[in-house]
């Protein structure tokens, strides 16, 4: 089961991922309206990726017997000064989101929340089904333990 601190941190990150998706959709629409179709397409793909991140985190919370607590998503800007400014904003946003993910990892470490030891009705020595060990679980190591990043 998730600690309340870890559960809250994951719920906050889910909200951030959903906001990121909305921001990239707004950027995509802005660029599409100015006929920058390649950039618009790329940002739409980024929006889908952010939604996928949110869903992975959401599934992780639920599979760890946590409670999902969705919050309102702030509306992103819909107008941008230009293509360069838009991508500078996207870069800054990605850097902030990456820092947030690093903070989430540090919270898990401080809480000693080792997902592989989850007692949510699953055998922790078996490989993850639906990735219950988190979005960062990658593969079994030589000793049979799960390697995480």
What's the short version?
The chain is mainly alpha-helical. It is 57% helix and 5% strand. The chain has a single domain (4-148), classed as Ferritin.
Task: Explain how this protein is built.
The chain has 149 residues and is mainly alpha-helical. The protein has one domain (4-148): Ferritin, CATH 1.20.1260.10. Helix content is 57%, strand content 5%. The chain is built from 3 helices and 2 strands, in the order H-H-H-E-E. It has helices spanning 4-33, 37-63, 83-110; strands at residues 137-140, 146-148. The chain has a two-stranded antiparallel ribbon with strand order 1-2. Strand 1 and strand 2 (146-148) form a beta hairpin. It is elongated and about 50 Å long. The chain starts with a helix and ends with a strand. Mean pLDDT is 82; it is low at 116-149.
Radius of gyration: 18 Å
Shape: elongated
Low-confidence regions? 116-149
| Helical segment count | 3
Find the CATH topology.
Answer: Ferritin
Count structural domains: 1
Oligomer: single chain
Largest sheet: 2 strands, antiparallel
For the record, the CATH class is: Mainly Alpha
Per CATH, the architecture is Up-down Bundle
Can you tag this structure with a few keywords?
single chain; 149 residues; mainly alpha; Ferritin; two-stranded antiparallel sheet; 2 strands; disordered C terminus
